[in-house]
Write a structure and sequence with these properties.
The protein has 304 residues and is mainly α. It is flat, with a radius of gyration of 23 Å. It starts with a helix and ends with a helix.
């Protein structure tokens, strides 16, 4: 029954497995790159190791947020199917068992595919980084399998949390409620003043910290991670409340967002987490590009 559910919803689960496997691959790549010989023996190795470790944990946090959101969306789209099974006589215990087995299959598949990508493509990316840094010594294309254990543990914990969230979503429902949850609308969203204030404070703190850092990279490192986390959390609060408040102001303007024909604020509230992931992904691309550029520039300066 669990395998049939995954097969029938393959268009939902295939992107989910692909995205989670890619995140595991990126996490393993950063962890493995940190222990490479040419990194350890290069000048400023302590700085590069700190940046790589910081980046790996940022990827882990982003993966947790993104995968939990995807899992909740998938479960919501399957409420009608689960309610039908529940109404045909399947008890909650059997329904929970199906969800546990499905998440177990998805988790094992993700760990296998992500590890396979790491073994297959990891050495190539490490060699590419060495070429960018113009490392003259020969790079041995190998994978330290002991370093893969951390990624497996982290993502196993993430899938355990996802399983618990999925089980909690059907804990207090009956067949009729469960079948109607997928069609249930939300009440008109309200802008939370506390969330708006937190968004402004956190985003302001993050960007102010980034722009006010003086000195070398040693002075920047202790402030970088708190500022990054503050921007991520502030962005979430921004799209949760501040955007809703702005759209409600626009709605009061005559002939602009009037009525429910252009009910953007309701859609923005329903899709707030999905909207947040756009800035999150852009932030990670910017972080990766900046790290590579700064690492290369530092390496060139030290060589001179």
């Amino acid at each position: 029954m669990a395998t049939r559910g995954i097969k029938n919803n393959k268009f939902l689960y295939f992107p989910y497995i692909l995205a989670s496997s890619f995140m595991l691959f990126i996490f393993n790549l950063l962890i493995d790159l940190k222990s490479e010989k040419f990194i350890l023996e290069s000048r400023g190795s302590a700085i590069i190791e700190s940046l790589l470790e910081m980046g790996s944990w940022i990827v882990a946090i982003f993966s947790l947020i993104f995968l939990v959101y995807m899992a909740k969306t998938i479960v919501k789209n399957r409420y009608k199917e689960l309610g039908l099974l529940y109404g045909l006589g399947m008890d909650k215990k059997s329904l929970r068992k199906i969800l546990i087995i499905e998440n177990l299959i998805l988790g094992i598949s993700t760990l296998i595919i992500g590890t396979f990508f790491t073994i297959l493509l990891g050495p190539l990316f490490i060699n590419l980084v060495a070429r960018i840094l113009k490392i003259q010594s020969q790079i041995k294309l190998s994978i330290n399998f002991s370093k893969l254990i951390l990624g497996l543990i982290i993502f196993a914990i993430i899938f355990i949390l996802i399983t618990l969230i999925s089980l909690n979503s059907i804990r207090k429902t009956n067949p009729i409620e469960l079948s109607k949850l997928s069609q249930k609308g939300e009440s008109e969203p309200k802008a939370n003043v506390i969330s708006m204030i937190l968004a402004i404070i956190l985003i302001g703190y993050g960007y102010y910290t980034a722009l006010s850092i003086n000195g070398g990279i040693f002075q920047a490192l202790p402030k970088f991670l708190p500022a990054s986390i503050a921007v991520i959390i502030g962005t979430y609060f921004f799209f949760r409340s501040l955007v809703i408040w702005i759209l409600k102001l626009f709605r009061k303007i005559k002939n602009l967002l009037q009525g429910y024909k252009y009910d953007l604020y309701r859609r923005a509230y329903q899709k707030k987490q999905g909207i947040c992931h756009g800035p999150f992904i852009n932030y990670h691309y910017l972080f990766s590009f900046s790290f590579k550029f700064c690492g290369y520039e530092c390496y060139v300066c030290w060589e001179k």
